[in-house]
Amino acid sequence: MTKVLVVEDEDNYRQFLKKVVERKYPCETASDGYEAREKIQKGNYDIVIHDLRLPGIQGKDLIHFIRNDIDRNIINIVITGYENDWNPIEAKGEDIFYYFKKGEFKPADLLKILENAEKIRKIRIDEKKNINKLINEEKKSYFSKLAISIAHEINNPLQSMMLITNMLRENLSELESENKKSLNEEIDILEKSIGRIKQTVELIIKFNRDNFEEGEKTDIQWIIDQAISFIRPIAKEKGIKINKPVIQNGSNLKKLNRSHLFALLYLLLEIVDFNIQDISIFVKRENETCFIKIICNLKNGTSKDTSYDRKIGDIEKDTSIGSSLNIFKKLGTGISFKKTEDRVTILIKH
Questions:
Q1: Tens-place pLDDT, residues 119-162
Q2: What is the pTM of this model?
Q3: What pLDDT was estimated at residue 28?
Q4: Residue 242 backbone phi and psi in degrees, to 5
């Protein structure tokens, strides 16, 4: 039920307003600004009717207090005998719903304004609820994107898996029955992500062995396919296209240590941070040497971005992607970078 507070220092007029309002709404009163502020802090009012000239806190200051410190959706109505204190145009700019001059309105007029104020109050509250609902739905719909982003940003698959799971668990209590379908979709995405993460965890364990060269050997085709499979969802979220890899002399390519997958994966995770349009991978063999060329075409305007030049500069100093560079070096693999205005080319040689 809509609740009204009348703030008026003249006893008779305060009682008159109270009787008018109580024809339709519960009503309380305050005789000065201090009493009004105390009641507003403790009560739950939907509409406040203000006199402007009050003992203690003035009506204008009380309105500002309500709007800034209590609830800006509370409807404020001014009834004053001194129109020059706050002209109607200025009052409208202060989000005053209606402005009455004492003695110039009938009780029915006030009740009609209160009815309209009640409707506006309800619309404001419903609008706020709808906005909060949209925000929550937006958060839920982007939950999988956030999970992928976390996995990318912290570059630690095991921690990512734990963090994402905890986030999902915290959100379960907030989900209603209508969101079950959405939850199932998110769990499906999560399970696929965890599958990729588990593969990477296994690679980490293998990679941490003391002797890198004694690791399991595998086809380079498998290494490329696995790395692209893992990185593709992240690239898709960033609007980056990964072209189908071109592998020359496929059957004659030498096998590589599986730790190369971990190194390549780390490298690709860093590459997708660039403002790039697409990634192409070319593999070929010359004599006993295997070459992997990664070409990253930049989006328009990227070369003018100072942060891009800084990051490329860091790469050339072996600082931006130190993890993958160190892995390649320990595996006896060479890596070099070349940049132009429209692309970055990375050459891996083993």
A1: 888 887 776 676 566 555 554 544 444 444 444 444 444 455 55
A2: 0.40
A3: 95
A4: -105, 110
* Domains identified in the chain and CATH numbers: 4-137 (3.40.50.2300), 142-206 (no CATH), 210-349 (3.30.565.10)
In the block, residue with structure tokens 């304004």: 113
